[in-house]
């Protein structure tokens, strides 16, 4: 899955700020992933893109709620350091940072 065009496109979309497009592309991977850490990680990436979209739309409460969902998905990946070539801890830190930013500003 790491070498799939969908995964590469999804990560590029997210990095470039095309959060909806990221979600759309990665959803197909999530739907085909077997139950377990891989599936939960892909779902976490999708939800992180959703959180970033909500932030961009000026909806901080929705962004915080989605960041919490990201972290719950990542909790299900406990004991796995890297998934699809990405450090799990980096996505968690990204979600926590975005969530913290909005919690202290409101």
Secondary structure blueprint with pairings:
Blueprint: H1 5-15, H2 19-32, H3 37-56, H4 60-75, E1 82-83, E2 86-87, H5 88-105
Antiparallel strand pairs: 1-2
Helix pairs in contact: 1-2, 2-3, 3-4, 3-5, 4-5
Distance between the termini: 39 Å
How many domain modules? Answer: 1
CATH class: Mainly Alpha
Helix % is over 70%
Oligomer: single chain
Provide the β-strand percentage band: under 5%
Number of H- or I-type helical stretches = 5
Spans with pLDDT under 50 lasting ≥5 residues?
Answer: none
Radius of gyration: 13 Å
Secondary structural class: mainly alpha
User: What would the principal axes of the Cα set say about the shape?
Assistant: globular
Overall pLDDT level:
93
Mind telling me the CATH superfamily name? Answer: TTHA0068-like
How would you explain this protein's 3D organization?
The protein is mostly helical. Strands 1-2 form a two-stranded antiparallel sheet. The longest helix has 20 residues, at 37-56. The chain has helices spanning 5-15, 19-32, 37-56, 60-75, 88-105; strands at 82-83, 86-87.
